[in-house]
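Ticket #4471: structure output looks truncated?

Reporter: J.K.
Steps to reproduce: submitted the chain below (174 residues) through the standard prediction queue, then opened the result file.
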Amino acid sequence: LPSDELRSVLIFIITYLTRQINAGNKNLAAERLYWYYEMFKKGFLQSGSYVELRHLKNLVSLSVQQNNFELAKELIEEYTPKVDPQYISTARHYNLGALYFYQSNFKDAQFHLLQVDYVDAFHHFDSKSLLLKMYYLQEAEDALFSLTGAFTNLLRRNKTVAKPTKEQYLNFIK
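Returned output as attached by the reporter:
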């Protein structure tokens, strides 16, 4: 297939798998990771010469959720330097934070997640979500309650994120 057609087919596959997973068919998560990674390797998720920050985040997140820590580590090491230079620090810290969180290495996860710069709402909100989960798992009540209040206020004040997305984060906090 020509590359434009192949890209369209892969997007269709990933969209289909995502909808199936969201409908409760969780056993397709590994397949979604496979196809997303295929798109990534073929350069379909780049913007010019740079790897797009959100796609690297998504791929690392999918990897760690599948306990594929080796792939996540390889992605972070190989592709973080290929992100737009202004976002490299956030890419490294968020993705290492996610990797360490899923490995239950909370000390290193916290260090990295607290270093995430605000480059977009999703990196910022997802880093806060991982910190909340970590504080809950560690029974760190003071940190949990403090971040819960600050995160709730941040979400309510944010005017750029769509209402359903905002509600999803607020429901998570509850």
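Triage note (M.O.): checked the attachment and the full token line is present. The two ends are 47 Å apart (CA to CA).
Status: closed, working as intended.
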